[in-house]
Amino acid sequence: MTAKNPSNKRPLQNRLLLRRLSQLLFLGLFLFLFIHTDYSGADDMAYAVNILFRLDPFLAATVMLASKVVIALMVPAIAVLLLALVVGRAFCGWFCPMGSLLDVCRHGVKSDRAGKNTLFPRLGLWLFIVTLLLAFCGFHVAGYVDPFSILVRGLAQAFYPAAHGMTESVFTFTYLHAPDAVNNITEPIYSWLKETILPAERKYFQLAFFSFAILGGVMLLEMAQKRFFCRNICPLGAMFGLLSRYGLMRSRGGDKECGKCRVCSSLCRMGAINENRDIDMSRCNLCLECQVRCPRRVIRFGFSQPKQTSTIRGLSRRQFIGAVASAMVLPSIKEVHGLDKWSDPLLIRPPGALPEDEFVGRCVRCAECIQVCIGNGLQPTFLEGGLDAIFTPKLAARTGYCEFNCTLCGQVCPTGAIRQLTRQEKHLMKIGNAWFDRDLCLPHAKGIPCMVCEEHCPTPVKAIQFREATVINSDGAQVTVKQPYIVDDLCIGCGICEYKCPLPGLPGIFVTSGGEHRNPEHQLPRPEDFYGS
Amino acid sequence: MKNRRQFLLEAMAWSAGLGLPVPLWDATSAFAIENTPKLVVVTGKSYDILVTKALETLGWPGAFIKNGDKVVIKPNIGWDRNVAQGANSHPIVVVQLAKLALDAGAGEVKIFDHTCNEKRRCYVNSGIQDGVAAIGDKRVRLLHIDQRKFVPVDIKNGKSLSQWEIYRDALEADVYINVPVAKHHGLSRLTLGLKNAMGVIGGRRGSLHFNLGQKLADLATVIRPTLTVVDATRLLMRNGPQGGNEDDVEIRDTVIASTDPVAADAYATTLFGLKPEEIDSTVAAHAMGLGEMDPAKMRIQEFQL
User: Fold this and answer.
1) Structural domain count, chain A
2) Which among A1, A91, A306, B33 has most CB atoms closer than 10 A?
């Protein structure tokens, strides 16, 4: 990779251009796949929209440690590991969509601490080790710190729907209040946006502010220093750094003849260049900025450079013991929390979700299922599933429901935490059960006819049936009214009844995880068990 | 002329959900009711031919449509169900109506429904999306509902509803063809032409289910189809309105057409072995003078093709 003629600036600048093009290309590809994490007009996904997560060796390692099985879906991550052995952290500088996004963000914030020393040089590695240990001990939180999980979550649950809302407001305003001359221009633009990049429907997320704060925070931290997240926090970057130490890619930094010149170290967005102008390949993301800007043109990258000692230091003994201790403490506290004893009945997992412990062990909080859910039924969990289950998906039937014929969440799950189901399997997959609240449901509570839940119940033989009953209504009159009831064996817990229930406030029918197939302890009592058959 | 700042302030107010007043729509128009409405019933295996025969018997195109007219075809595409399951209007019926409108010189033909299941899945699985695409004429468009187009409409003659949000395209159409699929419904027993109006209204639709028959009749005073074409090619007999089990579907190969929406519903009711007076919306609409419900008082022409 060394330039043949150091005095010729041109080929070097071409490399910068090449890197930027690569960043742009992969950021564009990422956004393309993000937007296409949606129903495409066919039952099966047209693209492997989850590929980014399946290429992530940090997630692959934690998920496999947590679930103690080899997950075939995540095997592509090995390719990225091998890449790191050859080209070091080039992934961070050339491909990573989070890194590229931060490089873009930096143009929006003024940072005078560009190349300053990395503030928490050991944090990323510490997080990497702690997360792996925790995962092994049954407390899987890799998704809290993984760059792609943070990125997609923030986009899916805050930025993208917010951008949609803003766009809609603007075009609603022009549609209602602007003259035709304006609308003749704006309406075709709006139609085009709807066909290309806008989602089909508005989506709402309970953790919108939380998801926004995390991704927004990562972006704002660019003000503290360049690539703050990548240098200080990113456990995936730390993993690449660890490999780069033994990797083939080497560098030649400056030397004593550089005098007072500190161009390279002050430019470095990764804080990879030290006082002696040595380039630490476990930090360098090969952005090549230093090589291009070096007045003496002495900086080189390549496989033939002499090996340098890494300036990165591993964890101190104290830090390592701390990591091991916390890895043992948190899972044991989780035991005491004992969520399996009083699991939240409203914690309804997507169809095909593995049993709860395995599910949380595999889920990487990537929000792919939440993004793809066409009914806006899947919501990120907060603390209902425990401290280690934040951002895992749950069905919140008041905001949306599980579409009967749709199997997309299982198709986009990168780890198999949600199994892929055929349409036939999905139709029979019970994720919960509906219940009437007879104090609220109109025909039961007030003798008012209403069958909206029954109308929408999607099972071919409806899980909501009705009996005619003669009741005294609110006016004191005797009326005959159809009163709905649930057939447990037919109900699959899709939640459309709760979603469509016309009552404001609390619904007259609601879904709980009772009866879900994945948990034998949640089986519903069957009448014949009590009355005999 | 607004300056930029005012514009932005208003846009912000909009974004904050403050909402500027939307003008109220007046959709009440004088309508004449025929004393003995014409009703055509055609049965046969080629559904496109049934549709053509039914419309031509009524006098199509004739006075129904002028060159350049805006046509709206409103099928039932409410459910993520396929053709055989009988929950949505048959694509061949819908497509043939669009073709007839084009042949008669329609300026544009809009086809849409305010779906119950996810809108794209409904359009695809119903077969209507592919059918419309195959027409290959830019004047015909299958559109998704645009929430901005719901306008509050005064229902001056309404007994149970005084105002509701109705879709602008349906109100503005020169020719409005209502294409319900005849099927079972748990609450209203059957869902037919009047119930199909649920697909052009906004608001909290679920809350209409109290006194539904009267409310549908009230809506029928402002949503006035030029033609009602009932798709009775297959009847969903049980587990309506969305079904899902082909055993619940009876093949009847029938298309019913009339300019009288009440007459069309009343006749379609008889196909299920029910009497028109058993359907609340039919009774309520008849009582309001919106149409005829007694088949003996209709000029019925039947064809077997």
Assistant:
1) 2
2) A91
End-to-end CA distance of chain A: 79
Which structural domain range is residue A506 located in? 430-533
* pLDDT value for A327: 85
- Is the bond leading into A188 cis (omega within 30 degrees of zero)? no
A87 forms bridges with which residues in the sheet? none
Residues 206-235 of B with CB under 8 A from A: 206-207, 209-210, 212
Nearest CA in chain B to A459: B244
Block residue for tokens 């999607």: A458
Q: Enumerate residue ranges in chain A where pLDDT < 50.
A: 1-7
Across chain B, which distance is largest between two alpha carbons, in Å?
67
Contact between chains at B120 and A405 (C-beta distance less than 8 A): no
Q: What is the largest CA-CA distance in chain A?
A: 101
**Distance of alpha carbon A105 from its chain centroid, rounded?**
20
pLDDT over 50 at B19, yes or no:
no
Map tokens 């995936």 to a residue.
A236
Give the span between the Cα atoms of A351 and A422, in whole angstroms. 11
Residues of B in contact with A171 (CB under 8 A): 148
- B243-270: average pLDDT: 97
CA angle B298-B300-B302, nearest 5°?
165
* Cβ contact B118–A375 (<8 Å): yes
Choose the final residue of a domain: A283, A302, A321. Answer: A302
Neighbouring residues of A32: CB distance < 8 A, sequence distance ≥ 6: none
Residue B267 has pLDDT above 90, yes or no: yes
Residue B62 has pLDDT above 50, yes or no: yes
Is the torsion defined by CA of A457, A463, A468, A473 positive or negative?
A: negative
User: Strands A464-472 and A433-436: what pairing?
Assistant: unpaired
Q: Report yes or no on A357 lying in a domain.
A: no
Single out the residue in A246, A275, A302 at which a domain terminates. A302
Please report residues of A whose CB lies closer than 8 A to that of B117: 403-404, 458
Whether A424 maps to a domain, the answer reads no
Tokens standing for residue A133: 């240990």
Q: Is A293:A267 a contact under the CB 8 Å cutoff?
A: yes
Dist. CA B235–CA B250, nearest whole Å: 5
Q: How far is B55 from chain A (nearest CA, A)?
A: 32
Return the number of other C-beta atoms located less than 10 Å from residue A316's C-beta.
11
CB spacing of B239 vs A461 below 8 angstroms? yes
Specify the pLDDT at position A312: 60
Assigned domain for A462 exists: yes
pLDDT category of residue B85 using cuts at 50, 70 and 90: very high
B239 at interface of A, judged by CB pairs closer than 8 A: yes
Q: How many residues does chain B have?
A: 305
Instruction: Give the position of tokens 């022009």.
Output: A174
What pLDDT was estimated at residue B18? 44
Long-range Cβ contacts of A158-164 (<8 Å, 24+ apart) = A158/A205, A158/A208, A158/A209, A158/A211, A158/A212, A158/A215, A158/A216, A159/A212, A159/A215, A160/A34, A160/A199, A160/A371, A161/A199, A161/A202, A161/A203, A161/A204, A161/A205, A161/A208, A162/A208, A162/A212, A164/A198, A164/A199, A164/A202, A164/A203
pLDDT at A113: 57
Cβ count near A206 (within 10 Å): 15
Asked if pLDDT for residue B25 goes beyond 80, the answer is: no
Cα A112 from chain centroid (whole Å): 31
Say if strands B108-111 and B163-167 run parallel, antiparallel, or are unpaired.
unpaired
Could you give the residue ranges of the DSSP H alpha helices within A36-120?
51-54, 57-67, 77-87, 90, 97-105
- B33-304 folds as Rossmann fold (3.40.50)
Per-chain mean pLDDT for chain A: 91
